Every structure is written in C-alpha cells, then in structure tokens.
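One-letter codes give the sequence; the fold follows as tokens. Both lines appear below.
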Amino acid sequence: MTDPKFLSLLLKSDKKQFFALLTTNSTQTAALKQAKLLAGMSYCVLGCAETKDKQGNLVQLIKMRNAWTTGFWEGDWNDSWKGWTKQSRDAIDHQSKEADGSFVMSLQDVR
C-alpha cells in the first residue's frame, strides 16, 4: 500500500497543475534494469489518478514522461499491458501508444 500523504500531495499538485518530478536512484540496480528505467533519471509527472483495475481493486496511477523518450516502464500499466480498461485509460488520460516518452505506473510500483 502507498503512503496516503504522498498520494494526497500528488493529487493536489496535479489538480493545481503544479510541476513535479520523480527521480530514480543514481545507481543502476537490477530492478531498474529489469523495469527498463534509467538510473539517475528525472521523470516529469504528467498526472495521477485513482481508478479500479479489471478485478475492481482500487489502484493509484501516475503518468510520467521521459524527455529523452528512452527507458520505458515494462511492468503492469505499460502501453501494451492486458489489464487496461477504458475506465483506467480515461482516468489517467493515457490513450496514445505513440513513442512520446509518456508511460504509466502504479504508485505502488513507483515507491
């Protein structure tokens, strides 16, 4: 489960259209390598939302963008993941499968 204060801060920042960044650890760990994320990289937060997954469980999603358009998340909620629903795509406004550098992760995976 994620920290409710962190989620609240992200949701408030998103609503007020504040600028936010998330940064990965500066050391290339096995977890980062497996997830296809880059060490020491800052990702712009484009939005966040609470929605339900296919099983009806509440999930917190965060949409980010890598300005270099390399190193995309390949876990749950990646562009081709089979668990997407129309409701979840609409909630986080992630319709495109273009290589624009944006990707979605659950907040639990971010932490």
Summary: The chain is about 25% helix and 25% strand. The longest strand covers residues 42-52. The chain has one domain: 4-110.
